[in-house]
Known about the structure:
Helix 10 packs across helix 11 (256-269), helix 13 crosses helix 16 (343-353) and helix 23 crosses helix 25 (644-657). The strands form 5 sheets. The chain has a 9-stranded mixed sheet. Strands 15-20-21-22-24 form a 5-stranded mixed β-barrel. A hairpin with a 2-residue loop joins strand 8 and strand 9. The chain has 746 residues and is α+β, with helices and mostly antiparallel strands. This is Heterokaryon incompatibility protein-domain-containing protein.
Amino acid sequence: MxxxxxxxxxxxxxxxxxxxxxDKSVEKKKSREEVKRAFRRAAERATILYKYQLLxxxxxxxxxxxxxxxxxxxxxxxxxxxxxxxxxxxxxLEGINPRQRYEALSxxxxxxxxxxxxxxxxGAAKILPPRDAIDFRRDFLQxxxxxxxxxxxxTRKRFFVRPNLDKALRYLRHKTDPVVLWVDAVCINQSxxxxxxxxxxxxxxxxxxxxxxxxxxxxxxxxxxxxxxEDFGSAMKFSRDILDLNKLDTYYLQEDCWAKSWSDLLDLMxxxxxxxxxxxxxxxxxxxxxxxIGNHEASWHDFADAVSLxxxxxxxxxxxxxxxxxxxxxxxxxxxxxxxxxxxxxMVDAITNVFRRNAKGGFSEPVxxxxxxxxxxAPFESSDPRDTIYALLNISTESTRxxxxxxxxxxxxxxxxxxxxxQVYTDFLQWVVHSSQSLDIICRQWAQPERKDAGGWRNRTxxxxxxxxIQTVSNADRVNADSLVGKPGRARYNASYGKTPQxxxxxxxxxxxxxxSLPMRLDNQIQNIxxxxxxxxxxxxxxxxxxxVGMEVDTIIWKSNPVRAGVITSECLKRGGxxxxxxxxxxxxxxxxxxxxxxxxxxxxxxxxPWYHRVALACMTLTDxxxxxxxxxxxxxxxxxxxQVIAEYLKRVQAVTRNRKFIESGASRDASGRLFGxxxxxxxxxxRICILYGCSVPVILRPEEIEHHVPCFRFIGEAYVYGRMDxxxxxxxxxxxxxxxxxxxx
Length: 746
């Protein structure tokens, strides 16, 4: 252990570490005053332990070195955790026969204060004598409170961890042999955000790749409902049983025992670990992995296959829950109406497919670019919102291209915790627009919101207010409608007719974006329109401004309430042209309506098949006495004998309309000529429907106050507008005297 340097102050370094003791999930449950008291206790503890040299401090290591945690054996679970921390060169950990073998821990940091002591097996600490007896008497109560074992001769140095890591270390240690682990919270000096933390995070991919095994810690089985460790242990055994494909169908029989097994497995998949963004990197590179909950253990690969089989047979399994008399099981039927809310399935898919493997089973190269990873893993959390990007840098295709020259001098984002959240997000957006030649990213909800409260060593950068063109993922709205822009690189529409984005991010001086080849068979009028793009405005307002060139289409004159519980109201249907007379044999559903209900695409993004219209007519005749189409009730009818195609169509309608508003625009036109479609839940009357060049779908913008003599807009979100999804605005612009303009979006 190195000597303490002159000028070291616990208020600058030690206190930064102890202030990490609370995360957002705890702050929601505790009052602000309780959190302040917890910080004061932690600061008091750090000060007194520092004074008597009982607090562990990190030595400096270089980027070619790695710390490992040696956990001493203990016969009983409640015995003190005693460890040794050693430093190894990366060469010592590499190869088939490394000098030191180890396992890596993958876990959720979890809520609660970092107040669980871990002791260093380095012999007794050198205790500095107090300056005088009065000084010691003043310290006596604090030592008694924070280090009572000091008075029984326990003078070893220590550090403190959160409750979930404390449990993991206790359950994973051996009774007779030491266990060697790499644990991010301990093996990285988390308070050194300028040097060590970025260096160590940059090589985490290799740390997990070199590990002999990755231990996935899901917890000890204690939940808000009580101790469920045995339920989860049975679920882990059941996950192995269902891998016998010859017997798989027997587990769907209407029997309570199978309903409970499937329900316990579903509850296990709801563990917080599955919500962690860092998990993808940790597991994607693992040679082997085991999943642990309490004393129970299973192979990760077996468990991942079980999750995939659960997803494949979701409808059959959910039917078992519906008929159960157990309230807990029945609640799972109500809570999980679709796989959209099952994070475990998305996580398993990402971990399985993020890297290609060579013929020998080793890893060759990443599969997905950064935009795809960030978009697909949007619901997953990280304790630092900047890790929305940083947690995925190592496993994106951009990680293999950093040494290549870039003719436009716009490089992929790099890990830099010195930047605030707005800078990190804007770096990402600028790279995505540049590399993809698309503006669709601003329509996706991908960003983690900024923390509400500043403070703590993990959030020392300035607080920022994110602009409207950075769409955040809300905890309350995790299950929203399917994205209209679709997955990156697979645009479903062509609203801007292949026009490349013309944008400016804040005060950044971007070089011109490369121009893609224009669509084939453009007439001279369209060619002239595309070539006469007005210059980007010079930035005057600041970094929270996005300037984008496009066209204004129309003004919204009517909007419905957001679609909730799958109910399409009669007014929405009438504005779409539906007028049911009872003679459905000869009646037709207007294209404007049925195509809007499914966004004129299948779930896979293809053009709708011919039978969609016929099934739409059958569904429309099932409206209730008030004329509302209640899709959820129709899907959940116990005695429903309708064809499967009707159920599939209704699911598509739900996926498109969920939490969206029906909209209508065109005050100067009669009902037959007005535009009809779907907008985001925040849409208001008076908002504008616009086409931004480079964006594959129309967007909703809201006029704001004028700043610096420039009219501004707020970005509301993507929209589906019947008849305006495939370049029609540009083809009609000459006839309607519509000109390109620059939108200043704040």
